[in-house]
Amino acid sequence: MKKIISIALPLMLAGCGNPDTSPGTNVHAAEAQTEPKIGNGEGTVTAIDASTGKITLSHGPVTELQWPAMTMGFSAKDGQTGGLKVGDRVKFSFRWDGKTAEIESIERK
Predict the structure, then answer these.
(1) What are phi and psi of 58, to 5 degrees?
(2) pLDDT, tens only, 44-83
(3) Distances from the Cα of 21 to the Cαs of 15, 16, 26, in angstroms?
(4) CA–CA dist 84, 44 (Å, integer)
(5) Which of 5, 76, 81, 88 fits 103 for a cystine, CB–CB 3.0-4.6 Å?
(6) Under the phi-then-psi rule, with left for phi > 0, alpha for psi from -120 to 50, and beta for the rest, what region is 51?
(7) What's the CA gap between 59 and 68, in Å, rounded?
(8) Rounded to whole angstroms, how far apart are CA atoms 84 and 90?
(9) pTM of whole model > 0.85?
């Protein structure tokens, strides 16, 4: 029995190596091919940090991404948060790349 284990164990471990990274093989091909998605929502401004370009929104469900209601931070471009203040109700669209949400448009309701 010990002989079988001593032969089988190294063979099993040999199959647990790293994925094929030889030239022409893209391990992250599926990730790289996904396009950013556009989401739309309505919510309330809970924070604005002009120094980092972030706006935090407490928003309702985002049906395009199958997200429930939540509070989260979004990246905003220069000028997009001008005129907004904490407590404002807004309608917005954003680009989601799987890691970061970036405001595309935002307007007070």
Answers:
(1) -95, 105
(2) 999 999 899 999 999 999 999 999 999 999 999 989 999 9
(3) 15, 14, 7
(4) 10
(5) 76
(6) alpha
(7) 9
(8) 9
(9) no
Give the least confident one: 6-15, 20-29, 40-49, 80-89: 20-29
pLDDT(3) > 70: no
CB atoms within 10 A of CB 43: 22
Amino acid at 61: P
What's the rounded Cα separation, in Å, for the pair 80 and 53? Answer: 9
Residue 84 CA to residue 49 CA, distance in Å, equals: 11
The per-residue pLDDT of the chain, averaged, comes to 82
One-character DSSP codes across 73-93: EEE--TTTTTT--TT-EEEEE
Query: Cβ-count burial of 41 within 10 angstroms (0-12 exposed, 13-18 middle, 19+ buried)?
Result: buried
- Which tokens hold the place of 34? 């996904």
